[in-house]
Amino acid sequence: MKNHTEIKIRGYHLDVYRHVNNARYLEFMEEARWALFEDHIEAFITSGHAILVVNINISYKSPATLGDTLDIHSSITRFGTKSFTLMQRLTQKGSHTLVGEADVTFVVTGPDGHALPIEGKIREILQPFVPPPTAPSPEEG
Q1: Residue 139 located in a structural domain
Q2: Is 15 a catalytic residue?
Q3: Whole-prediction pTM value?
Q4: Is residue 118 part of a domain?
Q5: 22-66 per-position pLDDT tens digit
Q6: Is residue 25 situated within a structural domain?
Q7: From 15, 68, 71, 103, active-site residue
Q8: Contact (CB, 8 A) for 48 and 110
């Protein structure tokens, strides 16, 4: 599954300080989420369900500037009873400098607009967005 999206920084992304404005990062992350979800859950969405953002917590680490290419990695890190959290990390392509990271919390609603439990078919649809577990390092083993 493709969980990386690249975005090249253009002049119109910059603010008067000549770096990417904080609000633009929200747009970049939204673009990455669409790229992540659109090919995998179209039938789910067309059935009247919605995946809605209910909270975003962003930490800005390093500025991005004109000509940078950002690699946005997205994966589900937590399932709750009626919500799930998607972690998004923005790094500079090439240097791998961390530009920012965010935890984005979602609820899934049914056709009636009410939040649904993250279980059964919903959990099954979202499970591929969870990265596989990593093997423990020799120090941990």
Answers
A1: no
A2: yes
A3: 0.88
A4: yes
A5: 999 999 999 999 888 876 777 677 778 889 999 999 999 999 999
A6: yes
A7: 15
A8: yes
